[in-house]
Amino acid sequence: MCRTKSLNGASLRIIAMVALCGSLGSCTSMDVFGGSDKVDRSISTSSIPSKPKAGDPQSDEATVRNAVTSADLAKVGANPLPWANSATGSAGVVSSIHEDRSAGLLCRAFTTSRHSYEGISLFSGQACRTETGDWSLTAFDRQ
């Protein structure tokens, strides 16, 4: 009579581990995913600046000045006047504009909000027309 030895549980586990390690090892050594020369390195992370640029508040001030000085007060009346600055991401609403000529120059006093990454703020300001016809922001103060 011929006897064959059967494999016990421990031997089967060892054979399974060797087979598994061998197959996984060969996958990592082969160029399965096309190689490192085909990695897309054009994608950049952290492309949003962590701090606003130094000139950003002046840019918002110029945007508000342009909104206030270009508004047709006869049409706007007491309605809110929205503004947005695509360069800084800030936006706001001019809630009041009052025109005054008492100082000899045409001036517009206004109140506006500013919604930015720094939070929401309320400002009061004044823009006056210069002798050359340009508008100049003479006040822009946080409330």
From TrEMBL:
Source species of the chain: Rhizobium soli
Biased composition (Low complexity): 42-52
Surface antigen domain mapped to chain residues: 30-142
Protein name per UniProt: Surface antigen domain-containing protein
Signal sequence segment: 1-21
Keyword Glycosyltransferase tagged: no
Record keywords: Signal
Region Disordered, residue ranges: 40-63
UniProt keyword Manganese, yes or no: no
InterPro entries per the UniProt record, alphabetical: Anti_2 (IPR032635)
Cited Pfam families: 17kDa_Anti_2
